[in-house]
Every structure is written in structure tokens, then in C-alpha cells.
Amino acid sequence: MRKLIYHVATTLDNYISHDDGSVDGFLAKGEHADDYLESLKAYDTVLMGKATYEFGYQYGVQPGQPSPVYSHMKHYIFSKTLRFGAEAHERVVIIDSNEVEFVKELKKAPGTNIYLCGGGTFAGFLFDNELIDELIIKLNPIIFGGGIRLFGKSTKGVDLSLVDSKAYNSGVLLLNYKLNYI
User: Fold this and answer.
1) Domain Bacterial bifunctional deaminase-reductase C-terminal: where (predicted)?
2) pTM metric for this prediction
3) Would you tell me which CATH number, out of the four given (3.40.50.2300, 3.40.430.10, 3.40.1210.10, 3.40.50.720), belongs to the domain 4-180?
């Protein structure tokens, strides 16, 4: 079965972005960024919520088109309101109902592990439904003091098992955990 892997940058105080969705303050360049881009080659599928997909618009993503960074991946955008017309690319699909069943079936389908791009609210929904298998944190040496949390408003607790870790000279730590749902 394919694993759903939430691979995301966070602050030391558990935020994936500022309240407005911006990510100013995260270290965007360095060996950790190169390793991240290289790791994306291992995925053939990306899941994200509406806000995360639309965040890409400021970086040139056109509505209904795949993100250039994930261009080799099938995109599943989870949204009740987002719609694309004829401009929708065949690799960009909106999921607007039966989200839990869809993810369960996707994990059973052939392919590589599945990349969960975000955002916090969507990740919290998947986490609450025990659908995330691994968590890869790019822990940045910064504190935002507020913003969008790693798992949104979820209050679920879970034990983690450290699978791997790597420290970069930039101060970023890469932490890979398996989630052990109770």
C-alpha cells in the first residue's frame, strides 16, 4: 500500500506559514532546499487543499494547471468551491466529496508514495482521519509566534517514531517520523 507523506516546512513553534499564508522567514536556499527538490522526484501524486494550490498563483501557477515544481505529479486539489473550466489540465483533479474514501482508495492504487503538500487545515482533516502515514518536517530555525499550524485546529494526539534525521549547516533539521495512531 502507498504511504501518504506530509512533507512540510515548519517553524520551531509549529507553524507552516503566517496567518496570511506567506512563508517569509523560511530558508528557501541551501542544501536542505536542494535535497527537498530532489526528494520530489520520488512522488507521482500530490494532494493539497485549495489555499495551498492557490498559493502557487503568485509563483506563476495558472488556474487548472499543474504546479511547475510538481509538474510530473498527478495533482488532487481538495475543495468544495474551486472549479476550473476547459483550461483544466488532465493532471489536475478537484476532489469535492467523499474525501476520506478517495484517499483510502488512492493509497491502495498502484504508484509511488503520495506527497501531501498542505495546508494546515487539510492536513489536520487527514490527520484526524488517520490517513497520514509519515511526517517529514523541515524544521526551520525561526519562530513566527502565530500563523497556520502544522495540523490546523486538530487537537488529536499521536505517538511518533523517528525514522531518520539530518542536520544542515543552515540550522534546518530534516526530521522523518512514522505516525503511530492509537
Assistant:
1) 2-174
2) 0.95
3) 3.40.430.10
